[in-house]
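Why do we care about 3D structure at all? Because function follows from shape, and shape follows, mostly, from sequence. That is the central idea of this module. The next example makes it concrete: a single protein chain, its amino acid sequence, and then its structure expressed as tokens.
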Amino acid sequence: MATNYRYEGRVMDITAGTDLKSGELVIVGDIAAVCITDIDNTKKGSAAIENVWELDKEADPSGKELDQGKKVYWNATTGKVSNTPGSEPELPCIGIAYEDAASAATTCLIKINVGI
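And the structure:
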């Protein structure tokens, strides 16, 4: 094995800026991370930076669905996935829709950190 190999890199330790719950998505720098356990404010904990996660989704009154393979964005104000990047400030891309989701759906499957 290469002598400079360190980790698989599927999980990283993060320092919480607020109390975080297991399953909660947070933005760390330019990537999305899903907390594996509860992490208290100012404490370190583990967060996944790969895989497919079921996340809360904004209902879209215009009827726009999430299309499989299309980029999705994180609205930190609502704590939900959005199908549009918004504007000023633009919402961060967190990955792609793993499967289609209807406009009225309240959750969706997202493969994080792909296509960002």
